[in-house]
Amino acid sequence: MTNPPSAPRILILGVGSSGVQAVAHMCRQNPTLDAVVIDTDKKVLEACGMEKIIHVGSAVTNGFSAGGDVELGRQSIEKDSSNIRNQLRQADLLVVIAGLGGGTGSGALPVITRIAREAGTLILCMVTMPFAFEGKPVASKAEGALKKLRTHADAIIRIPNETLVDRADSELPAEQVFSRSQEVMQDAVFALWRMLSQNGIYGLDFACLQIMLRNCDGFCHFASADADGVGRGDAVAKGILSHRLLKKGKVLEIASGLIVGLVGGPNLKLSEIETVMNQVQEKIPTDTWVNFGVMIDPAFENRLTAIVLIAEQWKEPLVDDAGRQMGFTFNRQLSAEQGQLPLETAGKGRFTHVDPTILDNQDLDVPTYIRRDIKLPR
């Protein structure tokens, strides 16, 4: 994707067989996406039709998949991390697409997000969670990877495959059911790409998204709805409020942060925008941080699409964007109720005038999690 100088570079990264297939499908739908795919399985990479591919772990898996082994997935990325670092250097936003529960996705993602965070890149992960019938060991691997991801990713969107199906779907073709999570991720990626790379009449910009991802405390929810013709504003609002991934509106009721993006054709009316926003606003708490944008696209003639990105929790990050050292101060007056420790800038105290310990241009007197900009798990 060729961006104007002022536009942020959005890099889409597919990891593991599920991530590779999902991103390859997105690029067939929108060839202008800037995307790279990574896997240990050489056959999967050769069959995806992508121009930018990174084959990792040839010395670990001999060109085959990780076979569900998380440790092999981790080792494969660690041994070939230099190529990944080169890809991430110029990215402003990294959107990682993967399925958790397997070897490469679950093992590689925490390493990739660590590398991206060291490069100063904003990181959004979109991951699918396994079906119940895949078994407890697979679910356990997925949950373990999710916990590790929180250390480095700014935000994670979990897409439970189980939530996207019901009993009425049991007779549908398997391929159709399995593709639903891909469709959700594709909607999210395309919406972010439009929002950040094109100008709207009432715009959302990279700064809005950055505020959301930096303060969402780990997890976000995503949903979209689309309608055309008469009454499309009301139809889109109802689609959002009843969306499965938002637990039929329950997630909105506890939202701490919310981004709404609307895309319509040249005949989009103010009343339609008001219909969507008013119905969404009625569901959320009065003190929710809200930002929204509107974009006109001739390709959306007589159509209206809405996307929402929701944060349940809203907390200041433990490491700020400027890399400022943040230390702990304690209130000596004990309370029966445990509260959150206040964070204040910490100085060097009596060691202020002592020369710092420098190694490889790094001040070793600064804690590792601050030097490497690592988010501490809450």
Can you walk through the features of this model?
This protein has helices spanning 16-29, 42-48, 58-61, 70-79, 81-88, 103-118, 136-152, 174-178, 180-197, 206-215, 232-241, 250-253, 270-283, 368-371; strands spanning 10-15, 35-39, 53-55, 93-99, 122-129, 155-160, 218-228, 257-264, 289-296, 303-311, 327-328, 343-344, 358-359, 362-363. Strand 2 (35-39), helix 2 and strand 3 (53-55) form a beta-alpha-beta unit. The strands form three sheets. The chain has a ten-stranded mixed beta sheet with strand order 3-2-1-4-5-6-7-10-8-9, sandwiched between helices. It has 378 residues and is an alpha/beta fold. The model is unreliable at 318-345 (pLDDT under 50). The protein has three domains: 10-195, Rossmann fold, CATH 3.40.50; 217-311, 2-Layer Sandwich (60s Ribosomal Protein L30, Chain: A); 317-378, no CATH class.
Number of E-type strands: 14
- Count of individual domains: 3
Rg measurement, Å: 22 Å
Order of helices and strands: EHEHEHHHEHEHEHHHEHHEHEEEEEEH
Low-confidence runs (pLDDT<50, min 5 residues)? 318-345
Secondary structure: elements and pairs:
Layout: E1 10-15, H1 16-29, E2 35-39, H2 42-48, E3 53-55, H3 58-61, H4 70-79, H5 81-88, E4 93-99, H6 103-118, E5 122-129, H7 136-152, E6 155-160, H8 174-178, H9 180-197, H10 206-215, E7 218-228, H11 232-241, H12 250-253, E8 257-264, H13 270-283, E9 289-296, E10 303-311, E11 327-328, E12 343-344, E13 358-359, E14 362-363, H14 368-371
Parallel strand pairs: 1-2, 1-4, 2-3, 4-5, 5-6, 6-7, 8-9
Antiparallel strand pairs: 7-10, 8-10, 11-12, 13-14
Helix pairs in contact: 1-6, 1-9, 4-6, 6-7, 11-13
